[in-house]
Amino acid sequence: MGGASATNCYSGGVNRQGETMGPSREERHDSYVAKARAELESLGERGVLMAGNAFSSVLLIKGEPTTEERAGGTPFAGEDGAALRAALQALGYAPEDWSGLAAWDETGASLDAPLLREAICALDPATCVVCDAAAANLVREAFADDLASLESFDEAMLVDGVLAQVACMRMMSLGGFAASLADKHQKQVMWRRLKQLPPLGEPY
After folding, report:
1. What is the structure's pLDDT at 99?
2. Would you list the domain boundaries of the chain?
3. Sequence-ordered list of residues with C-beta below 8 angstroms from that of 35, at least 6 positions apart, any chain
4. Mean pLDDT across the stretch 81-89?
5. DSSP at 108
6. Contact 88, 196 (CB under 8 A)
7. Rounded CA gap, 53 and 99, in Å?
């Protein structure tokens, strides 16, 4: 195919005239992926707990672990994670298009705000879903300056169910998603909130 011959022409970063070329799109992509993987490995070495697929458009954050998660279980492996993934698929996201982040570390201690922000920025989601009050409080601290710059008071306070644009991300606090699963009305509230976060591109 034509693409293969073009790749050969510019192999080594030199064109037919012997002029040095900048990095190709593929090289830039590979460099980006390598950098992101190194950042995620560094976060893991510092006790940050993540789940799902790192290069996803949706990031789920929770701060209230289940009994299994407190014992070392993977975040979002339980009923709440299954319900969130089902909701995302119903909205049109691909089944694999999600990542998860715990607001506590492998010792069970809460992450500090700068580390949480670093983890969110490394995962680089388009949409950030904050699942409970503990996570929301930490996210507010981590993005305090960004939130303070918003004109809407409700957005700046990250009020439950209010969609905010924060640091180039869509961000919403759901407010107690896991607890809502035991209450039919609250489940409907959560679904109405999640419906504000359809895929930004073409549905799956």
Report:
1. 97
2. 47-194
3. none
4. 98
5. S
6. no
7. 5
Residue 29 has a pLDDT of: 72
Is the distance from CB of 172 to CB of 196 less than 8 angstroms?
yes
Strands 127-130 and 169-173: parallel
Cα distance between residue 76 and residue 101, in whole Å: 9
C-alpha to C-alpha distance for 65 and 104, rounded to whole angstroms: 8
- Whether the per-residue pLDDT at 181 is higher than 60: the answer is yes
The Cα 113–Cα 174 span in angstroms is 19
pTM of the model: 0.84
| Residue, of 203 and 59, whose pLDDT is higher | 59
Spatial CA neighbour of 167 closest among 198, 201, 103, 123 = 123
Cβ atoms 97, 58 nearer than 8 A = yes
* CATH number of this structure's domain 47-194: 3.40.470.10
Residue 195 three-state SS: coil
Asked whether residue 195 carries a pLDDT value surpassing 80, the answer given is yes
